[in-house]
Amino acid sequence: MSRLDHDAHPLAEMREVMENADCLISQGAVERALDRMADEISRDLGDKLPVFYCVMNGGLITTGHLLPRLGFPLEVDYLHATRYRGKTRGGELFWRVSPEVPMAGRHVVIVDDILDEGATLAAILDYCREAGAASVSTAVLVDKQHDRKAVPGLRADYCSLEVADRYVFGFGMDYKGYWRNAPGIFAPKGM
Protein backbone atom coordinates (compact mmCIF):
# COMPACT_ATOMS: atom_id res chain seq x y z
CA MET A 1 0.00 0.00 0.00
CA SER A 2 1.44 3.38 -0.94
CA ARG A 3 1.62 6.20 1.58
CA LEU A 4 -1.09 8.04 -0.37
CA ASP A 5 -3.47 5.06 -0.06
CA HIS A 6 -2.71 4.77 3.65
CA ASP A 7 -3.40 8.48 4.25
CA ALA A 8 -6.64 8.52 2.24
CA HIS A 9 -8.54 6.23 4.60
CA PRO A 10 -7.95 8.26 7.81
CA LEU A 11 -8.68 11.49 5.93
CA ALA A 12 -12.03 10.17 4.71
CA GLU A 13 -12.85 8.82 8.17
CA MET A 14 -11.98 12.12 9.86
CA ARG A 15 -14.03 14.13 7.38
CA GLU A 16 -16.98 11.80 7.85
CA VAL A 17 -16.74 12.03 11.65
CA MET A 18 -16.85 15.83 11.50
CA GLU A 19 -19.61 15.99 8.89
CA ASN A 20 -21.83 13.78 11.05
CA ALA A 21 -20.84 15.05 14.50
CA ASP A 22 -23.24 16.68 16.92
CA CYS A 23 -22.17 20.21 17.84
CA LEU A 24 -22.63 20.30 21.61
CA ILE A 25 -21.13 23.74 22.21
CA SER A 26 -20.63 26.36 19.49
CA GLN A 27 -17.49 28.40 18.97
CA GLY A 28 -19.39 31.48 20.17
CA ALA A 29 -20.43 29.75 23.39
CA VAL A 30 -16.83 28.64 23.96
CA GLU A 31 -15.63 32.22 23.49
CA ARG A 32 -18.19 33.55 25.99
CA ALA A 33 -17.17 30.84 28.48
CA LEU A 34 -13.53 31.84 28.12
CA ASP A 35 -14.48 35.48 28.76
CA ARG A 36 -16.25 34.47 32.00
CA MET A 37 -13.32 32.29 33.05
CA ALA A 38 -10.86 35.13 32.38
CA ASP A 39 -12.96 37.56 34.45
CA GLU A 40 -12.99 35.15 37.41
CA ILE A 41 -9.26 34.43 37.19
CA SER A 42 -8.47 38.15 36.87
CA ARG A 43 -10.53 38.91 39.96
CA ASP A 44 -8.83 36.21 42.02
CA LEU A 45 -5.24 36.27 40.75
CA GLY A 46 -4.68 39.58 38.97
CA ASP A 47 -2.41 40.87 41.73
CA LYS A 48 -0.55 37.61 42.49
CA LEU A 49 1.99 37.25 39.61
CA PRO A 50 0.79 33.67 38.98
CA VAL A 51 2.39 31.05 36.79
CA PHE A 52 0.13 29.19 34.34
CA TYR A 53 1.06 25.65 33.34
CA CYS A 54 -0.52 24.34 30.14
CA VAL A 55 -1.16 20.59 30.25
CA MET A 56 -0.07 19.27 26.87
CA ASN A 57 -1.49 18.39 24.42
CA GLY A 58 -5.13 19.02 25.24
CA GLY A 59 -4.66 22.28 27.15
CA LEU A 60 -2.86 24.00 24.27
CA ILE A 61 -5.92 25.49 22.57
CA THR A 62 -7.60 26.58 25.82
CA THR A 63 -4.38 28.16 27.08
CA GLY A 64 -3.83 29.95 23.77
CA HIS A 65 -7.30 31.48 23.88
CA LEU A 66 -7.40 32.17 27.62
CA LEU A 67 -4.10 33.96 28.24
CA PRO A 68 -4.67 36.94 25.88
CA ARG A 69 -7.86 37.66 27.86
CA LEU A 70 -5.86 38.14 31.07
CA GLY A 71 -4.72 41.74 31.45
CA PHE A 72 -2.17 41.25 34.22
CA PRO A 73 1.44 40.04 34.45
CA LEU A 74 1.88 36.27 34.56
CA GLU A 75 4.37 33.59 33.60
CA VAL A 76 3.63 30.64 31.35
CA ASP A 77 5.12 27.18 31.24
CA TYR A 78 3.88 23.78 30.13
CA LEU A 79 3.99 20.23 31.33
CA HIS A 80 3.21 16.87 29.85
CA ALA A 81 2.37 14.16 32.32
CA THR A 82 0.79 10.76 31.89
CA ARG A 83 -0.14 7.85 34.09
CA TYR A 84 -0.57 5.37 31.24
CA ARG A 85 2.77 5.03 29.38
CA GLY A 86 1.29 2.80 26.70
CA LYS A 87 -0.92 0.85 29.08
CA THR A 88 -4.68 0.85 29.51
CA ARG A 89 -4.46 1.32 33.28
CA GLY A 90 -2.97 4.34 34.99
CA GLY A 91 -0.12 3.98 37.41
CA GLU A 92 2.40 6.36 38.88
CA LEU A 93 2.63 9.82 37.32
CA PHE A 94 5.31 9.96 34.61
CA TRP A 95 6.61 13.33 33.39
CA ARG A 96 7.17 13.39 29.65
CA VAL A 97 8.09 17.05 30.11
CA SER A 98 8.36 18.40 33.63
CA PRO A 99 7.77 22.08 34.38
CA GLU A 100 10.78 24.39 34.14
CA VAL A 101 9.44 27.41 36.04
CA PRO A 102 9.74 26.65 39.77
CA MET A 103 6.46 26.39 41.69
CA ALA A 104 7.72 26.98 45.24
CA GLY A 105 5.94 29.95 46.77
CA ARG A 106 4.03 30.68 43.55
CA HIS A 107 0.34 30.89 42.77
CA VAL A 108 -0.06 28.12 40.21
CA VAL A 109 -2.85 27.67 37.66
CA ILE A 110 -3.08 24.38 35.77
CA VAL A 111 -4.87 24.84 32.42
CA ASP A 112 -6.39 21.85 30.63
CA ASP A 113 -9.12 21.13 28.10
CA ILE A 114 -11.44 18.77 29.96
CA LEU A 115 -12.05 17.33 33.40
CA ASP A 116 -13.22 13.81 32.69
CA GLU A 117 -12.23 11.25 35.33
CA GLY A 118 -9.38 13.48 36.47
CA ALA A 119 -6.80 10.96 37.74
CA THR A 120 -3.89 12.63 35.94
CA LEU A 121 -5.08 16.11 36.93
CA ALA A 122 -5.35 15.03 40.58
CA ALA A 123 -1.78 13.66 40.42
CA ILE A 124 -0.53 16.93 38.87
CA LEU A 125 -2.22 18.91 41.65
CA ASP A 126 -0.55 16.72 44.28
CA TYR A 127 2.80 17.28 42.58
CA CYS A 128 2.30 21.08 42.64
CA ARG A 129 1.42 21.06 46.34
CA GLU A 130 4.44 18.89 47.13
CA ALA A 131 6.61 21.31 45.11
CA GLY A 132 5.62 24.05 47.56
CA ALA A 133 3.18 26.12 45.50
CA ALA A 134 1.56 28.91 47.54
CA SER A 135 -1.76 28.00 45.94
CA VAL A 136 -2.88 25.67 43.17
CA SER A 137 -5.97 26.16 41.05
CA THR A 138 -7.30 24.63 37.86
CA ALA A 139 -8.77 26.26 34.77
CA VAL A 140 -10.55 23.68 32.61
CA LEU A 141 -12.67 24.49 29.58
CA VAL A 142 -15.14 21.60 29.96
CA ASP A 143 -16.33 19.44 32.85
CA LYS A 144 -17.81 16.12 31.74
CA GLN A 145 -20.83 15.25 33.87
CA HIS A 146 -20.66 11.76 35.37
CA ASP A 147 -19.96 10.05 38.69
CA ARG A 148 -16.59 8.45 37.81
CA LYS A 149 -14.23 11.18 39.10
CA ALA A 150 -10.92 9.75 40.34
CA VAL A 151 -11.20 11.80 43.51
CA PRO A 152 -14.77 12.17 44.80
CA GLY A 153 -15.87 15.78 44.50
CA LEU A 154 -13.00 16.72 42.16
CA ARG A 155 -13.91 20.02 40.49
CA ALA A 156 -12.10 22.66 38.51
CA ASP A 157 -11.71 26.04 40.18
CA TYR A 158 -12.45 27.82 36.91
CA CYS A 159 -14.77 26.11 34.43
CA SER A 160 -17.62 27.61 32.46
CA LEU A 161 -18.87 24.69 30.38
CA GLU A 162 -20.36 21.27 31.09
CA VAL A 163 -21.03 18.42 28.70
CA ALA A 164 -22.98 15.22 28.96
CA ASP A 165 -21.13 11.94 29.38
CA ARG A 166 -20.26 11.48 25.70
CA TYR A 167 -16.98 11.22 23.84
CA VAL A 168 -16.16 14.80 22.85
CA PHE A 169 -13.61 16.47 20.60
CA GLY A 170 -12.67 19.94 19.45
CA PHE A 171 -11.03 22.97 21.03
CA GLY A 172 -8.10 20.87 22.25
CA MET A 173 -9.81 17.51 22.70
CA ASP A 174 -9.05 14.96 20.03
CA TYR A 175 -10.78 12.23 18.10
CA LYS A 176 -8.16 9.51 17.40
CA GLY A 177 -5.49 12.21 17.47
CA TYR A 178 -7.36 14.54 15.09
CA TRP A 179 -9.79 17.45 15.29
CA ARG A 180 -8.23 19.24 18.30
CA ASN A 181 -8.60 22.24 16.02
CA ALA A 182 -12.39 21.91 15.57
CA PRO A 183 -14.13 25.24 16.32
CA GLY A 184 -16.37 24.23 19.20
CA ILE A 185 -17.13 21.07 21.14
CA PHE A 186 -18.44 18.10 19.17
CA ALA A 187 -19.46 14.49 19.77
CA PRO A 188 -19.38 11.75 17.16
CA LYS A 189 -22.81 10.43 16.22
CA GLY A 190 -23.76 7.52 18.42
CA MET A 191 -21.01 8.15 20.97
Total domain modules: 1
Q: What's the multimeric state? A: single chain
Radius of gyration: 17 Å
Give me the strand/helix succession. Answer: HEHEHEEEHEEE
Major β-sheet strand ordering: 4-3-2-5-6-7
CATH architecture: 3-Layer(aba) Sandwich
| Total count of helical runs of at least 4 residues | 4
Q: Give the strand content.
A: 25-35%
Taking the sheet with the most strands, its summary is: 6 strands, mixed
Unreliable sequence segments: 1-6
State the end-to-end CA separation. Answer: 31 Å
Shape descriptor reads globular
Q: What value does the average pLDDT take?
A: 89
Q: Report the structural category.
A: alpha/beta
Description:
Keywords: Glycosyltransferase, Transferase. This is Hypoxanthine-guanine phosphoribosyltransferase. This protein has helices at 3-20, 27-45, 59-66, 119-130, and strands at residues 22-26, 51-55, 75-82, 94-97, 107-115, 135-144, 161-163, 184-187. The chain has 191 residues and is an alpha/beta fold. The strands form 2 sheets. A 6-stranded mixed sheet has the order 4-3-2-5-6-7. It has one domain (26-166): Rossmann fold (3-Layer(aba) Sandwich).
Please outline the helices and strands.
Layout: H1 3-20, E1 22-26, H2 27-45, E2 51-55, H3 59-66, E3 75-82, E4 94-97, E5 107-115, H4 119-130, E6 135-144, E7 161-163, E8 184-187
Parallel strand pairs: 2-3, 2-5, 5-6, 6-7
Antiparallel strand pairs: 1-8, 3-4
Catalytic activity: IMP + diphosphate = hypoxanthine + 5-phospho-alpha-D-ribose 1-diphosphate; GMP + diphosphate = guanine + 5-phospho-alpha-D-ribose 1-diphosphate
Organism: Halomonas mongoliensis
Pfam families: Pribosyltran (PF00156)
